[in-house]
Amino acid sequence: MLKIQSRRDFISYLFLMPVLIFFSIFIYIPLIFSFICSLSSFESLNTLKFVGLKNFIEMINDDVFWISLKNTLIITSIDLIAKLFGSLSVALGFNSVIRGRRFFETAYYLPAVASIIVTGVIWSWMYFPEYGIVDITLKSLGLPTFLWLGDSRFAIYSIIFVLFWKDVGLFGIVFLAGLQAIPRSFYDSAKIDGAGFFSVLRHITLPLLKPSILFVIVMVTAWDLPQMALPYQMTKGGPGYSTTTLMLYIYLQGFQAWRLGYASAMTFALVCIALIFAYIQWRTLKTEVLY
User: Fold this and answer.
1) Domain that holds residue 153
2) CB 215 within 8 A of CB 174
3) What's the confidence (pLDDT) of residue 285?
4) Is the whole-model pTM more than 0.85?
């Protein structure tokens, strides 16, 4: 019996070997090399020189690092809150529509299919001063216009709105699936007891949607913390550093200034932040869903 069990284990590891090799080549080995780079002065393969914690000390004293970190946290937190409320509202609307539901689901989901770069190009045109559709619409309504991407006060919020617009329909479908999994008898019982809309939402809908809510939180956080493509496409991180995210700053330092050692140190800082978020979410998931 022990021999069969051992053979079964050997076959299991044999099937896992391609995955382990893949992770080793494309994740673990680059991660180890990146950690070595973070402790080195590395401008090219011929100039790898150990400098200890110098890159991390420079990072702590770098004002742009803290600005980019602040921008990253602003984007992640505001976009997360907006998508939770917006997607849930969309799902509740879908759930109450009987005729034409498939059409509205498809229409709201379509932006999620578009490439992030294509989305950035289209919205850059729409935000264009004077001649963009956003300014034209505001003018037609007699409302003031702004330099949406050229003013440091509005640029980051303009980008957050694009992120929200792109994925609100996608997460609306996720919430809709969760809503349709709730037994109808719960709502019928609440209706008989005279419960109103907000009472039903608080005591029935939201508690039973916790798995969907946590899924949305995890996905939005995982997508927004390393956000780089949209700010780079729409503003190149400007004006000033008002829309420079941490991942964009890592890219600029690593592949434009060619300071790979410093970029690696900031990458590990971002990884640590992501792990903190992941741990909090895991604890919440374990407490609220698994038990």
Assistant:
1) 62-290
2) yes
3) 66
4) yes
